[in-house]
């Protein structure tokens, strides 16, 4: 047999098994396209011209790695399904006289054809769409960059090499599988697993226990930094629990229903329960994969959309004023110098400064213990650590045009999180009476920021303030920090010019720093816009994988149910009864992963909100809305996929 014969046979096999190979090839093309686009954008020269280029480049490079790792795992997973469905065909070739060496040549040529088709079309579509995707990224970020069409040779080389290796590994796996099997095993390969499964009680029990522990951990975490660590533990436990419940727990429940004779021995329940037992055994891992991928889609999209939409809320929480300038008082005229620079920049850029104020503060760090603030032991920092700012009633009166008068033993407090709620305050054993608690002082306000526990204390005068500071810091060298804050009134373009101009001037002053909403917004857009873009990409990838598993599950169900359909007819069931029974089973099996995914994200809600707090996001109602909207859209797509793949299923059965 010459090489052209094997080539024709390989091409014929791909065509003949089009129902199996077409989705596999399309999926590979889509994954390769996404991989190329992500890497090409990460190395695009235009990226370096954008604000926050370093953060964006890191996010996109990270996305490339995630897509690559996930793609390799998923291609291998779908390939294992394909080779299982083709075992009977390959076994028949072996019995008809083709040696395993000849079969290996045929499989190798099939893999080469698939690789050339997938990598070739994937690169072509990736190159064609990369500019469009970059423009979409620019639109999301709100940036304008001069863009020219180019082909990234490094991206082409990496994409070709990576996926060629992945497909080569699948070929080696297939050849090893065929080599270790005899013809009889191959002929029976696609029918393996038809015996009624036994209940694995220990696995089922472990599944419910690990899932319960995962849910418990996710809902008992109180601090965002703690959530960062416990989230991954909870994820692993929930994933293990999901697999165990689908593999063993579902069969255990169905077997218990089967033991209930009053329930089981009716026409509808008898056929449904017995059929579901076989379905759950054959599809348990696939259903668990669908569940986990569905959860990944929901979490990825809901969080990244929330961060992107909630950027303005995060900026407003961080800044009360449009601009805040901090500087150490190296000399007495630093405040006047900062004010003069701000006024000059305002005149030069045609904007007006409003709500202008300045004040001085000293800072210390303590450990809060009830009503007492104790000197911090730097070797024992915990959640009770509080960052304290000292100001005077003089500053308060100047800012608010008020007439606050305090005795030397009296203070007024402002906390960024929970109120102090004690009548007295002890600062290293020095007692003060708490006259009042305010919600805000200048740009210090209640933010409910779980990462930063801060308190501002208003003293009667500078002498008391400085003495308390010296006692707590064990330092007689008092060097206050000056704050200058104001809002800007003017055209948006003029505000940007003003910020840039003033930033340059402030950078020239030693130990003086400028923070503005405009600059922070630019940084946030770069980071959270990048997250949003990456979330859409990864969400689409996970969705594509979910659709593929669903499709192959339906195809597998169709081939298995074809024989069951004939058996049910032979034992006297009508066509309508059979359709009703099988349809009930398929709907239950199909929507079980979606139901579990909804349960997973419900129990993960608290820990996810804590993780979002690490990014400064505290708008829980917005996150609820984004999660609910994502869930509705995903459920709709899931339903459409079911209806489309169900058509393929019924064609096979008929």
Report what the structure shows.
With 654 residues, this protein is an alpha+beta fold. 68% of the residues lie in helices and 12% in strands. It is built from 20 helices and twelve strands. The strands form two sheets. Strands 2-3-6-7-5-10-4 form a seven-stranded mixed β-barrel. A two-stranded antiparallel ribbon has the order 8-9. It is elongated and about 100 Å long.
Give the topology.
Layout lengths: L2 H14 L1 H25 L10 H33 L1 H9 L4 H42 L11 H27 L3 H7 L11 H20 L3 H36 L1 H4 L2 H43 L1 H8 L4 E6 L5 H15 L3 E18 L2 E4 L9 E8 H8 L9 E6 L8 E4 L2 E9 L1 E2 L2 E2 L8 E6 L2 H12 L7 E9 L2 H16 L4 E5 H54 L4 H29 L1 H9 L6 H34 L1
Parallel strand pairs: 3-6, 4-10, 5-7
Antiparallel strand pairs: 1-11, 1-12, 2-3, 2-4, 2-11, 5-10, 6-7, 8-9
Helix pairs in contact: 1-2, 1-5, 2-3, 2-5, 2-6, 2-17, 3-6, 3-17, 4-7, 5-6, 8-9, 9-11, 9-19, 11-17, 11-18, 11-20, 12-17, 13-16, 17-18, 17-20
């Amino acid at each position: 047999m010459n090489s052209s014969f094997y080539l024709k046979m390989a091409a014929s096999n791909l065509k003949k098994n089009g129902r199996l190979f077409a989705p596999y090839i399309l999926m590979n093309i889509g994954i390769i396209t996404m991989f190329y686009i992500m890497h090409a954008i990460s190395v695009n020269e235009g990226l370096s011209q954008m604000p926050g280029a370093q953060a964006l480049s890191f996010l996109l490079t990270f996305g490339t790695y995630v897509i690559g790792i996930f793609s390799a795992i998923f291609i291998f997973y779908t390939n294992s399904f394909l080779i299982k469905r083709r075992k009977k065909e390959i076994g028949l070739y072996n019995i008809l006289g083709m040696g395993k060496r000849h079969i290996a040549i045929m499989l190798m040529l099939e893999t080469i054809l698939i690789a050339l088709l997938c990598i070739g079309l994937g690169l072509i579509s990736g190159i064609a769409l990369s500019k469009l995707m970059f423009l979409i990224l620019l639109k999301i970020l709100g940036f304008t960059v001069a863009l020219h069409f180019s082909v990234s040779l490094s991206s082409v080389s990496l994409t070709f090499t990576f996926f060629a290796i992945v497909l080569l590994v699948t070929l080696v796996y297939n050849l090893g599988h065929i080599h270790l099997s005899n013809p009889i095993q191959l002929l029976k390969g696609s029918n393996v697993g038809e015996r009624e499964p036994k209940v694995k009680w220990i696995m089922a029990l472990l599944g419910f226990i690990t899932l319960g522990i995962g849910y418990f951990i996710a809902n008992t975490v109180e601090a965002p930094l703690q959530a960062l660590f416990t989230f991954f533990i909870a994820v692993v436990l929930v994933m293990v629990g999901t697999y165990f419940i689908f593999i063993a727990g579902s069969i255990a429940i169905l077997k218990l229903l089967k033991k209930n004779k009053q329930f089981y021995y009716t026409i509808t329940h008898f056929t449904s329960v017995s059929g579901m037992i076989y379905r759950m055994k054959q599809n348990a891992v696939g259903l668990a994969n669908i569940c986990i991928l569905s959860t990944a889609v929901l979490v990825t999209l809901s969080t990244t959309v929330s961060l992107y939409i909630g950027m303005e809320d995060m900026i407003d929480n961080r800044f009360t004023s449009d601009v805040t300038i901090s500087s150490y008082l190296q000399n007495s005229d630093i405040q006047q110098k900062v004010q003069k620079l701000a006024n000059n920049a305002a005149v030069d850029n045609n904007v007006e400064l409003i709500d202008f104020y300045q004040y001085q503060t000293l800072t210390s760090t303590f450990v809060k213990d009830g009503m007492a603030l104790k000197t911090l032991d730097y070797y024992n920092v915990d959640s009770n650590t509080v960052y304290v700012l000292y100001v005077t009633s003089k500053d308060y009166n100047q800012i608010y045009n008020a007439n606050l008068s305090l005795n030397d033993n009296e203070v007024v407090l402002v906390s960024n999180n929970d109120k102090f709620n004690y009548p007295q305050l002890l600062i290293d054993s020095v007692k003060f009476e708490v006259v009042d608690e305010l919600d805000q002082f200048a740009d210090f306000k209640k933010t409910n920021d779980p990462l930063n526990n801060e308190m501002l204390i208003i003293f009667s005068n500078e002498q008391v303030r400085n003495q308390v500071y010296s006692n707590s810091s064990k330092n007689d060298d008092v060097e206050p920090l000056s704050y200058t804050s104001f809002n800007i009134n003017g055209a948006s373009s003029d505000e940007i010019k003003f910020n840039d101009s003033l930033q340059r001037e402030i950078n020239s002053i030693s130990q003086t720093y400028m923070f503005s909403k405009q600059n922070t917004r630019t940084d946030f857009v770069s980071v959270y816009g990048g997250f949003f873009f990456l979330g859409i990409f990864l969400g689409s990838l996970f969705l594509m994988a979910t659709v593929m598993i669903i499709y192959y599950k339906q195809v597998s169900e169709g081939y298995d149910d074809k024989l069951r359909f004939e058996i049910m007819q032979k034992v006297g069931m009508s066509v309508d009864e059979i359709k009703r029974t099988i349809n009930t089973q398929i709907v239950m099996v199909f929507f079980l992963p979606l139901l579990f995914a909804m349960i997973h994200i419900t129990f993960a809600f608290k820990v996810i909100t804590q993780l979002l707090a690490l990014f400064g996001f505290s708008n829980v109602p917005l996150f609820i809305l984004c999660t609910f909207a994502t869930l509705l859209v995903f459920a709709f797509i899931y339903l459409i996929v079911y209806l489309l793949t169900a058509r393929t299923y019924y064609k096979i059965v008929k």
